[in-house]
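Cross-check.
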Amino acid sequence: MPDENGTMVGILSRFRGLLPGRLAGKPVVPVVRLHGTIGAVTPLRPGMSLASVSKQLEKAFTTKGAKAVAISINSPGGSPVQSRQIYRRIRQLADEKKLPVHVFVEDVAASGGYMIACAGDEIFCDPSSIVGSIGVVGGTFGFQDLIKKVGIERRVYTSGDHKSQLDPFLPENPDDVARLQKIQREIHDTFIALVKESRGSRLKGEEDYLFTGEYWAGERAVKLGLVDDLGDLRSVLRERYGEKVQTPLIAPPGGLLSGITGRKPGAGALFGWTSGPEELISAIEARALWARYGL
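Predicted model, tokenized:
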């Protein structure tokens, strides 16, 4: 019913303290967590991709009353394509909504993880965070001696001279390796250009030091200009937007239907089965990515 002034405004103001933070006039900075390896490892165990995080990002940047968007990153890297697409989507939304982006590194933002971090107007990290690894890596195995030992003959039929490059069951061809390394250099150049564009004059190290694939702990990363300062999400946002800043976490869709958004639970998680070979291999590959940084 109307207040003494005959309006609903007075009634709302009397219950102001009971309303959600954004309606009560408190500053809002939504938080998006981008954690894990990047890119699909197997169909049953996809990593982070644009498809899996786009709804979170869009929701964060369209949050009513948002003063900025905070992104928490904890990733050892993965697909350079998905990393760059996530980076570009963050920058597109930031430009469209005119909102600053604050990135906070947790344990690691390396390789593709650091590429995504570069989407921030500012990057913060812990003194013990691992940052950098601006490079490209690829690996495989060679089984040609093993299959010969057990009496297996490899038969491959192709149309195209280079269709079966780097087949792990055939001897390594130096020409194939040279072609792969050429592609890696091109991807590396794209990565370097992105870092230069986003960090600009804040970069302090020499190029032949910054872009070798090396990585550093937080304090050194600050000195090199790879990140802006040391700090954690809660402290920095309170300092910037006040003690009453609201930081709602924008969570990804969950449940059995989450595969629609690109996040599919493994079969073992759904039915209690022991993980199969693909799950095991993907787990080993993900573990190897984290292990590069001592994690």
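The chain is about 40% helix and 10% strand. The longest strand covers residues 101-110. Passed to J.P. for a second look.
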